[in-house]
Specification:
By secondary structure, this protein is mostly helical. It is about 75% helix and about 0% strand. Among the domains are: about 1-85; about 195-280. The longest helix has 24 residues, at about 90-110.
Length: about 290
Amino acid sequence: MLQDQLLYGKMHTHADVALLLCQYPVLYGNIRRDQGYSDTAITFLDKAIALANERGYTELGAKAYYLKKGYAEFDKWGIQPDCLEDCANLYRAQTSFQAALSLAKGSQNKNGFHGPLWSAVLAEAGLVHAYTAQSGTEKKQALQTIDDASSCIGRSDFQRDWQFMNVNAEWYHIDKAEAYVAVQWGKEALREIHHVDRSDVQKRRRYVYTDIVEADAYLAQGQIEMCVACAGNALSLLDDIQSFVFITRIANIHTALIHDYRYENSPDVARLGAELLKVQHFYLFQ
């Protein structure tokens, strides 16, 4: 229907319809990404990128690149059990975040400061850099990029974009915590997470992610009981939030634990496995 309106509708509506046609694959692609259908998500986001490039929608193009390989390719990498050995999707994500940064900068030059988009792309670019960093200098550069995102959030002219992610100080602290996990600084990661309030019931999905990052941080510290508690809390919040990405990340934590001879017979780890099974195959327990 939108395509027909673009082809046969009145001329003054063409711009609005074209924008909607570009926004739709961005929205749908992000939904499919969260459901775990990363390849389908990338297909729709590629369509959005092509249309955005054709119509000169730099801001929407930046959002599509951000969600495309920024999130979808990063998710494809992160849910792999052997993600540290196979980094192809991680490097693809890094390339797309750079494209998103370039488009976001062009959009700002044209339309003015867009705080949520600019800070979100900076934060995720810094996070991916943290995972690819080899030297101490590269690790510090990655963390500094995320701090640059925090500076944007703190600006007086920063305003929420209701058609984008809810980017705020919590967002920064969660990303910074995961970046610390990426560089194996678990103690610093836990310090960042303590800045996340977790009291807003409207942000349950964000707090599931926080619990997963916290579980990873405790795992890096060797504090297995706390790791299992955080992973279990994330599972309990997933009762009415079906997210393949989150479930798989928790499953990978459980796999790492049972493959470590120190914890393979742990009752806490066994309990986490049982809770995970109930979420993965809920239909068996109805």
